[in-house]
Amino acid sequence: MKLTTMTQVTIDGVMQGNGGASDEDRRNGFERGGWALGKGDNETHAFINQTYQRADAFLLGRRTYELFAGSWGSWTVQDVPGWEPVARALNTRPKYVASSTLADPAWSGTTVLSDDLVTAVADLKAKPGGELQVHGSGTLTRWLLENGLVDEMTLIVIPVILGQGARLFPETGPDLALDLVESRVDSKGVTIQVYRPAGRPQYATA
């Protein structure tokens, strides 16, 4: 399977608290949640639905898994008009959680990956199929990129600057060159950028 990631971020790179509830994630005094709600147009909604439909399995970090399990895991397709493909995919396809502390996941179809994550993810990628998708899960996404395990990365960039919150990429960290595969902008100014990692960047010399 191809490992792909999809992350909603602001112009200043924040990914914290993008969901519908302003108090979804108040870690470290964050007060500006819900910034992505209602921002994309119908074409962006269709893109997200189509992405989830392509998933053969999901790989999630512990926190994102618990947020998804508490929402999507308790909803039927009738509960989320317009987002039926997302609900159907998340509730019917295998879910893998990278966690050393989650012991007894209640969401049906969940497997916990607690030991030797590099080998576990490589084994999943070696399985036949289309996509092993990562949604949200910032800490996990950074780790996967650092370990060369991401095949394709999608950023959905919301036109807002928050000025606070956890960012997808740290202030200091490994460098990575990217090849742009696809780019689009919707009628509300939301941009979708699809990249493939391309090794280390080349830096100009004197």
TrEMBL record:
Which residue range or ranges hold the Bacterial bifunctional deaminase-reductase C-terminal domain? 3-191
Annotated spans, Disordered: 13-33
A GO MF annotation of the entry reads:
5-amino-6-(5-phosphoribosylamino)uracil reductase activity
Q: Which residues cross the membrane?
A: none
Note the Pfam families from the entry. RibD_C
InterPro entries this protein is in?
DHFR-like_dom_sf, RibDG_C, Riboflavin_Biosynth_HTPR
Gene Ontology biological-process entries: riboflavin biosynthetic process
**Coiled-coil intervals:** none
For this protein, the record's PANTHER family field holds: 2,5-DIAMINO-6-RIBOSYLAMINO-4(3H)-PYRIMIDINONE 5'-PHOSPHATE REDUCTASE, DIHYDROFOLATE REDUCTASE FAMILY PROTEIN (AFU_ORTHOLOGUE AFUA_8G06820)
Name used for this protein in its record: Dihydrofolate reductase
Which organism was this protein described from? Microbispora catharanthi
Lineage here is: Bacteria, Bacillati, Actinomycetota, Actinomycetes, Streptosporangiales
